[in-house]
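My current task is to audit a protein record that another person submitted. I need someone to confirm that the token line plausibly describes how this chain folds. Take the sequence as given and treat only the tokens as open to question. This is what I was given:
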Amino acid sequence: MMPRNTLLAISALCGWTAGVIAEQPPLVHEGIIRASVDQVWAAFTTKKGLESWMVPHAEIDLRVNGKMRTNYHADGAIGDPNTIENTILSFDPKRMLSLRATKPPANFPFKSAIKGTWSVMYFDALGPKRTRLRVIGLGYGTDEEATRMRAFFEMANAWTIRKLQEKFPAPADASGEQGTKKEE
């Protein structure tokens, strides 16, 4: 175990100080998708995949510092004011993808609050046709705008998992374990 003084010195060098940035706990959603991890990964990390269930328009450059650009408006286009741009922070193919929203749509009401946030998605293979998707939102501040934005993403992240589950529906005789779950 590292001595406390060493940890404090490292924290000071890196600019970390207790209490400087107040954060809410991570926002966590997860669900079981009735598809292989390969299928779920492709649904999240390819143009064809994203457009098959989430948005009518998408582009993705799957590399560190690459961009994932999406537009939820059928009559829109990539690059218009409604385009959402995320920067890929890191990924471990078919296991983890982390993103930072670097350009929200023009009418997004939480432009200041989103600047310090990022999301990490974990893709856990549970079998040949079952994948657990866990979405963790981090960096939510404690001010009023950040709190309202967190409430927005509580609904939006649950919607995202439900939409992906709808893309890969459970068989008619399934046990019903395909629901979404929120943790804090």
User: Anything to note?
Assistant: Residues 144-167 form the longest helix (24 residues).
